[in-house]
Amino acid sequence: MAQSRQANDQQPTRVPSEEREHLGKLAGELTRYEVQAEVMDEPDLCLRVRNPVSVYAVEDVICERREHDFAFIASFGVHLGNSGSVSLTAHKVAWLVGATKE
Protein backbone atom coordinates (compact mmCIF):
# COMPACT_ATOMS: atom_id res chain seq x y z
CA MET A 1 0.00 0.00 0.00
CA ALA A 2 2.86 2.40 0.76
CA GLN A 3 4.25 1.74 -2.70
CA SER A 4 0.98 2.70 -4.43
CA ARG A 5 0.72 5.83 -2.27
CA GLN A 6 4.20 6.89 -3.43
CA ALA A 7 3.20 6.37 -7.05
CA ASN A 8 0.15 8.59 -6.56
CA ASP A 9 2.23 11.35 -4.93
CA GLN A 10 4.54 11.69 -7.94
CA GLN A 11 3.97 14.50 -10.41
CA PRO A 12 2.75 13.41 -13.86
CA THR A 13 5.53 13.14 -16.41
CA ARG A 14 5.38 15.87 -19.05
CA VAL A 15 5.53 14.31 -22.49
CA PRO A 16 7.63 16.41 -24.86
CA SER A 17 5.90 17.35 -28.07
CA GLU A 18 6.85 19.22 -31.19
CA GLU A 19 4.16 21.78 -30.39
CA ARG A 20 5.69 22.38 -26.94
CA GLU A 21 9.13 22.70 -28.52
CA HIS A 22 7.92 25.37 -30.96
CA LEU A 23 6.14 27.27 -28.19
CA GLY A 24 9.40 27.19 -26.24
CA LYS A 25 11.26 28.66 -29.22
CA LEU A 26 8.66 31.43 -29.45
CA ALA A 27 9.08 32.11 -25.72
CA GLY A 28 12.82 32.38 -26.29
CA GLU A 29 12.30 34.96 -29.06
CA LEU A 30 9.99 36.95 -26.80
CA THR A 31 12.85 37.58 -24.36
CA ARG A 32 13.81 40.52 -26.63
CA TYR A 33 10.62 42.27 -25.54
CA GLU A 34 9.57 43.32 -22.07
CA VAL A 35 7.01 40.53 -21.66
CA GLN A 36 6.67 37.41 -19.57
CA ALA A 37 6.20 34.19 -21.56
CA GLU A 38 5.56 30.78 -20.05
CA VAL A 39 4.60 27.48 -21.67
CA MET A 40 1.48 26.22 -19.87
CA ASP A 41 0.29 22.62 -19.86
CA GLU A 42 -3.05 23.12 -18.12
CA PRO A 43 -5.83 23.31 -19.03
CA ASP A 44 -4.44 23.07 -22.59
CA LEU A 45 -0.95 23.47 -24.01
CA CYS A 46 -0.28 27.13 -24.83
CA LEU A 47 2.22 29.94 -24.45
CA ARG A 48 0.88 32.51 -21.99
CA VAL A 49 2.32 35.94 -22.76
CA ARG A 50 1.88 38.83 -20.33
CA ASN A 51 2.79 42.48 -20.50
CA PRO A 52 3.82 43.20 -16.90
CA VAL A 53 2.64 46.82 -17.08
CA SER A 54 -1.00 45.79 -17.65
CA VAL A 55 -3.06 43.14 -15.88
CA TYR A 56 -5.30 42.97 -18.97
CA ALA A 57 -2.57 42.46 -21.59
CA VAL A 58 -2.42 38.66 -21.59
CA GLU A 59 -2.56 36.39 -24.62
CA ASP A 60 -2.53 32.61 -24.90
CA VAL A 61 -0.87 31.42 -28.10
CA ILE A 62 -1.38 27.85 -29.27
CA CYS A 63 0.66 25.86 -31.73
CA GLU A 64 -1.03 23.67 -34.34
CA ARG A 65 0.55 21.13 -36.65
CA ARG A 66 0.02 21.97 -40.32
CA GLU A 67 0.90 20.02 -43.44
CA HIS A 68 4.44 21.41 -43.82
CA ASP A 69 5.11 23.26 -40.55
CA PHE A 70 3.47 24.48 -37.35
CA ALA A 71 1.22 27.52 -36.97
CA PHE A 72 0.95 29.90 -34.02
CA ILE A 73 -2.64 30.91 -33.34
CA ALA A 74 -3.97 33.62 -30.99
CA SER A 75 -6.66 32.69 -28.47
CA PHE A 76 -9.25 34.42 -30.65
CA GLY A 77 -8.33 32.40 -33.74
CA VAL A 78 -6.01 34.75 -35.65
CA HIS A 79 -3.01 33.18 -37.36
CA LEU A 80 0.11 34.91 -35.99
CA GLY A 81 2.83 33.09 -37.91
CA ASN A 82 4.57 29.82 -38.65
CA SER A 83 7.38 27.84 -37.08
CA GLY A 84 9.66 29.09 -39.86
CA SER A 85 9.10 32.74 -38.91
CA VAL A 86 9.44 32.69 -35.12
CA SER A 87 11.12 36.12 -34.92
CA LEU A 88 8.31 37.82 -36.87
CA THR A 89 5.70 35.94 -34.84
CA ALA A 90 7.32 37.10 -31.59
CA HIS A 91 7.09 40.70 -32.79
CA LYS A 92 3.37 40.24 -33.56
CA VAL A 93 2.70 38.68 -30.15
CA ALA A 94 4.60 41.48 -28.39
CA TRP A 95 2.57 44.02 -30.35
CA LEU A 96 -0.63 42.19 -29.44
CA VAL A 97 0.05 42.62 -25.71
CA GLY A 98 1.18 46.20 -26.15
CA ALA A 99 4.91 45.68 -25.67
CA THR A 100 5.95 47.29 -28.96
CA LYS A 101 4.78 50.39 -30.79
CA GLU A 102 5.20 48.99 -34.34
Task: Output the keywords.
30% helix, 102 residues
Write a structural description.
It is a single chain. With 102 residues, this protein is an alpha+beta fold. The protein has one domain. 30% of the residues lie in helices and 26% in strands. A five-stranded antiparallel β-sheet has the order 1-2-3-4-5, with helices on one face. It is globular, with a radius of gyration of 16 Å. It starts with a helix and ends in a 6-residue tail after the last helix.
> Can you tell me the residue ranges where pLDDT is under 50 for at least 5 consecutive residues?
4-8
What's the helix-strand series? HHEEEEEH
Number of separate structural domains? 1
Radius of gyration: 16 Å
Shape: globular
How many strands in all?
5
Helicity range of the residues? 25-40%
**Biggest β-sheet description:** 5 strands, antiparallel
Q: Provide a count of the helices.
A: 3
Strand content: 25-35%
Distance between the termini: 60 Å
Q: Can you give the mean pLDDT?
A: 88
Biggest sheet strand order reads 1-2-3-4-5
State the secondary-structure class. Answer: alpha+beta
At a glance:
The chain is α+β, with helices and mostly antiparallel strands. It contains 3 helices and 5 strands; from the N terminus they run ααβββββα. Strand 4 (70-74) and strand 5 form a beta hairpin.
Write the layout of secondary structure elements.
Blueprint: H1 2-9, H2 18-29, E1 36-40, E2 46-50, E3 58-65, E4 70-74, E5 79-82, H3 86-96
Antiparallel strand pairs: 1-2, 2-3, 3-4, 4-5
